[in-house]
Amino acid sequence: MEIMWLLFAFVGGLSMKQLGLPPLIGFLGAGFSLNYFGFENSDNLQALADLGITLMLFTIGLKLNVRDLLKPEVWVASAQHMLIWVLLVTGVIYGLTYLGLSYFAGMTLQQAALLAFALSFSSTVCVVKILEESGEMKTRHGKIAIGVLVMQDIFAVLFLVIAAGKTPTLWAFALFALWFARPILYRIINSAGHGELLPLTGFLFALGGYYVFDLVGVKGDLGALILGMLIAPHAKAAELNKSLLSFKDLFLVGFFLSIGLIALPDMEMVMIALLLCVLVPLKFLLFFATFVQFKLRARTAYLSGLVLSNFSEFGLIVAALAVSSGWLSAQWLVIVALAVSFSFVFTSLRYKTAHSQYLKLKESLRQYESNVRLKEDIYQQPDGASVLLIGMGRVGRGAFGALLPSLGDELCGVDADPQRVRKLQEDGLKVIVGDGEDADMWENVDTTDIQLILLALPSVDDIAHITQQLRVAQYQGKIAAIARYDDEVEKLMSTGTDYVFNMFTEAGAGLAEESLRMLSAEGKYQVNA
């Protein structure tokens, strides 16, 4: 049976990729296809799915700053959005009882409120996958979205405690001791080195956090998230996250397959699920309105709201609990599963062109912005710089170090991750916070004296978007970028990039040139200038 899971998942994912769509849509389709051909969910597949979610929450914690959760635009906005959504959607669902649809017949106000609450959550799996694939986890809107997801996880824990009667034991107070255990955790990470022991250490911490929290009556997934947050300040947190990336993505395939294997729906269930998905735009509008109310810029509110506009796998947990308690009929578990799946497709398709959408709508959206700017939303200027280097990851830092002796203060780095920027500034480097894909930034940053912009980013699509936005903003200087493959070089040149460095080819040529220089110094070979 396991080979059939792999086969269907591979065919579904590859098919969607060929169509330019996220593979997760194909994984969802593969689950329903398996269901159609008579396959059933199993303990093995569910274990893989649960492990994928646990690892995902642990890796989210590795990138999370607790201070981000304490901001009103995160925790107050999350609570306000959920409250308004539940009130509005309860009324909508209860109103559907008068349409004569069989599954809504006889539904009480309490049942409608329970269903509205189940649909109020956004999918952690879907949102994180989209943000990771687009390289936007550390951006302003990415961090806002992740913060909202964490707050929703906290609300989920409170719900489970109240509804399921699962009260944490007195030993739960001992969990606060984990804060004081950080030096021990750090020492273990340091001892693990950089090889195969590092991802094994990540598995140990993620699953250990899960089982420790579950043991004292607290949601285990929250334990994995919190343990990741405790490790986040460590210097090897980013390396640990990368070592777990492939494992997490592979196990999450099991999650998407398991959704489709819940049950085989009839046509009326499909129609009701699609009807519920009509509420997804309402979720977006509520997020956008809430975020701008808390003084976020229109672009941040738009992108955060768009990526959060889906239903969550937690809705399945709520529905399952309601069915087991006799509050809802068993068919609603299938309907919610379908609605969750369809909402994943909606978000994946809409967010694929999110930046282009904002460019078209920005003048209309900006009228809803507050005149007061939050500290994080004030643009920094590259004073005195003639060269900007966008992206201060490993490649960007290497390029920065190579250019610094020649350019000095005329070189300025730009990165979307405030924590990374802060560390680089502490090292004495001239670096500012900025998201290269932010069209508003290029309208507000003075590029008159900038002669060259270097784009050292891992995503070719991101580089192409930035190049287009620079041209729209009337930037007159040169643009250079990096790529890994020849087809990527061609794509970037076609979007208006002046020069593209092939990372592998240029690295090989650079190594050869430096090697010959070493030999030349010994008088063995002559290197042409």
TrEMBL record:
Record domain RCK N-terminal: where = 387-502
Membrane topology note: Multi-pass membrane protein
- Matching InterPro entries, A to Z? Cation/H_exchanger_TM (IPR006153), Na+/solute_symporter_sf (IPR038770), NAD(P)-bd_dom_sf (IPR036291), RCK_N (IPR003148)
- Chain ranges of the Cation/H+ exchanger transmembrane domain: 7-346
Reading the lineage from the top rank, the first entry is: Bacteria
Listed name of the protein = Glutathione-regulated potassium-efflux system protein KefC
Electron transport in keyword set:
no
**Biological process annotations from GO:** potassium ion transport; proton transmembrane transport
Q: Which SUPFAM superfamilies match?
A: NAD(P)-binding Rossmann-fold domains (SSF51735)
Q: Where in the cell is it found?
A: Membrane
Record's family? Answer: Belongs to the monovalent cation:proton antiporter 2 (CPA2) transporter (TC 2.A.37) family.
Q: Which UniProt keywords apply?
A: Antiport, Ion transport, Membrane, Transmembrane, Transmembrane helix, Transport
One Pfam family cited in the UniProt record for this chain: Na_H_Exchanger
GO molecular function term, any single one: antiporter activity
Residues passing through the membrane, by range:
45-62, 83-106, 112-132, 144-163, 169-185, 197-216, 270-289, 301-323, 329-351
Task: Identify one Gene Ontology CC term for this UniProt entry.
Answer: membrane
